[in-house]
Each structure stands twice: as C-alpha cells, then as structure tokens.
UniProtKB/TrEMBL annotation:
<feature type="domain" description="EAL">
    <location>
        <begin position="24"/>
        <end position="276"/>
    </location>
</feature>
<protein>
    <submittedName>
        <fullName>EAL domain-containing protein</fullName>
    </submittedName>
</protein>
Length: 290
C-alpha cells in the first residue's frame, strides 16, 4: 500500500538525511566557537573605477579556516549561521573587524579605503544594529562615509518597514548602502524607490553573460540606475570584453577577478594600497570622497 511504500522510501533516505543534519549541526557548533578561536578573517577584493582602473574601495569577504575542515567557503557556512542568531554575532564581528582594519590602514598612512561589508537580512532586523555600528565607528574613529553596507533585494521581501527604517537611519549618518546581486530578486521599481540606497551591484550572472544576452539586461539596469541617481558596480568582471562593455555603457565601478581576487589584509595592502597608490594620499583626492 501507499503508506508502506512511503515509509520504505523515507527509511531509504534517512541515513543520508541524518548525516546531512549532523553535518549542519557540527558546522553550526564549530562556527559558534570560530570567533573566539580566531578562525575568522576578512579578505578584501578591490573595486576599481571603470574609467581609470584606479582603486576605489574593497569588499570585505568572510573566510573561515576550520582546524580539520580547512577553508570553509561562505556559501557553506553563511546559510547555516542565518538559520539562527549566530549571524548577528558573525555580522557584528565583520563590521568591527572591517573598521578596525580601516583604522589600522589609516594609521599606517594609507588613508581611508572605503570598505563594503555584506549584511544578512536578519541583521537588518536587529534593532540594536544602528547603535552597534555607531559605537564601532566612534571607537575606531572611521568616518561613516568609508563604511558601505551591502544588502540583497530580499530585505524587501519581509518585514520591510523595520529593515527600511533601520537602513535609512544608518544612511542618514553617512554610511553608503548598496543592493547586492541586483536583478536576481523580486524587487519592483516601486519597492526600490522606497529603499534609501546609493548603489546597485549588478549580479555576476548578468555580467558574465556579456557579450551576449547579459548586455540588454545590464543596459536596462544602468538606464534605471541613472534615472534614479544611483551608482552601479558590475561584479564578477573576468574579461577585458566585459570591462570595456561596462565602461562604455556608463557603469562607474568594476569588481572581479580581472582586477583581483579577495586577499588577506596584508596582501591587499601590499598589492593595492602601496603598489597602486593610496586613495586619499597627497595629490590624490579620489579617496577623500569615497
Ligand atoms: P557576494 O557578496 O555577492 O560576493 C561576491 C562573491 O563573488 C565572492 O565570493 C567573490 O569572491 C566572488 N567573486 C568576485 N569576483 C569574481 C569573479 O570575477 N568571478 C567569480 N567566479 N567570482 C567572483 P565569496 O567570497 O565566496 O562569497 C560568497 C557570498 O557569501 C557573498 O556573495 C555573500 O553573499 C556571502 N558572504 C561573504 N562574506 C560575508 C559576510 O561577511 N557576511 C554575510 N552576511 N555574507 C557574506
Ligand atoms: Mg557582496
Ligand atoms: Mg554579489
Ligand atoms: Mg551573494
């Protein structure tokens, strides 16, 4: 009968399901200890000006080195952290570490490099977030305009009012706000207008479909951004053809392996802040208005 068949099917899958569940729990528990154990680090990927190729800022990307598992990619552990409050703790660590690093670069004479951090949807609903960010900016003495927050369109899907008002509060303090992976979500233009944002980051999938079908989508996003007075970043730029397309289409910022991968802070400083000149250094005012 159907019932028995169903049960048989369930038992056949059970061991693998349980294994997957245990692996998730294992990762969650290990991740909970990762901050205190010093297993987390931020790597920095350059963002350059589309016209000049000069450094404009960096995106901070979280890296976790587990003693047994080795490097665990964010695609593997961020979704697990997002299931609970752990993402709040991780996200705070990311903000604090990015600001600590900016202050250290500043003290080393590199000027303030604008750093973008990724915020998970759950963090935008943490009512203590604006006060936490204020506290970090105050204690590190990093100007608010040097910190950028990247959120995905999914902040617009649920509890919109709280998230929007929190983001608006932060932006009113001078922080920059961008929409990550733009074009993959469901945000309508009406919703987009409600969001207090500065920038759109065109999703890598469209960028990598250039030359080809990505061109029409990218052009439409650029036209819309222009009409709304938003800046645009093309992310995942890997070829010179993609670079040329986006530069000629009026996209202001580029990010991708063509320019550089995310690097540990010391390597980022050595290859980008020293070799390529420092934004905000004497004679260069590109960094003074990041
Ligand atoms: P994202 O924020 O969209 O970050 C861009 C991802 O694309 C990064 O992967 C980056 O290394 C990769 N990438 C950049 N340029 C290229 C390119 O030219 N080609 C290709 N193939 N890939 C490129 P990563 O570091 O593995 O991060 C994946 C995602 O994990 C991020 O996507 C973000 O959603 C999430 N993530 C990373 N760090 C954090 C964090 O601190 N907090 C939160 N909430 N999420 C994070
Ligand atoms: Mg991002
Ligand atoms: Mg993205
Ligand atoms: Mg993403």
């Amino acid at each position: 009968c159907a019932k028995r068949e169903g049960r048989n099917r369930a038992t056949a899958f059970e061991p693998r399901l349980r294994e997957a569940q245990l692996a998730r729990i294992g990762i969650r528990d290990a991740l909970g200890l990762a901050i205190a154990a010093g297993q987390l680090a931020l790597h920095y990927q350059p963002q350059v000006c589309a016209r000049t190729g000069r450094l404009q800022g960096a995106e901070a990307l979280l890296r976790w080195t587990h003693p047994d598992l080795g490097t665990v990619p964010p695609s593997m552990f961020i979704p697990i952290a997002e299931e609970g409050r752990l993402i709040i703790e991780l996200g705070r660590w990311v903000v604090a570490e990015a600001c600590r690093q900016m202050a250290a670069w500043h003290a080393a004479g590199h000027g303030y490099v604008r750093v973008a951090v990724n915020l998970s949807v759950r963090q935008t609903r943490d009512e203590a977030l604006p006060a936490f960010i204020d506290h970090v900016l105050r204690t590190t003495a990093v100007p608010a305009r040097c910190l950028e927050l990247e959120v995905t369109e999914s902040v617009l899907m649920e509890d919109t009012d709280l998230a929007v008002s929190q983001l608006a509060r932060l932006r009113a303090r001078g922080l920059q706000l961008s929409i990550d992976d733009f074009g993959t979500g469901y945000s309508s233009m009406a919703y987009l207008r409600r969001l207090p944002i500065d920038k759109l980051k065109i999703d890598m999938a469209f960028v990598q479909a250039v030359p080809g079908e990505g061109e029409a989508i990218a052009s439409a996003i650029l036209a819309m951004a222009d009409a709304f007075g938003l800046q645009v970043v093309a992310e995942g730029v890997e070829t010179t053809a993609q670079r040329d397309f986006f530069r000629d289409a009026g996209c202001q910022h580029l990010q991708g392996y063509l320019f550089g991968r995310a690097l540990p802070a010391t390597e980022f400083a050595a290859s980008w802040l020293v070799a390529h000149g420092t934004p905000g250094a004497p004679g260069d005012d590109s960094g003074r208005h990041p």
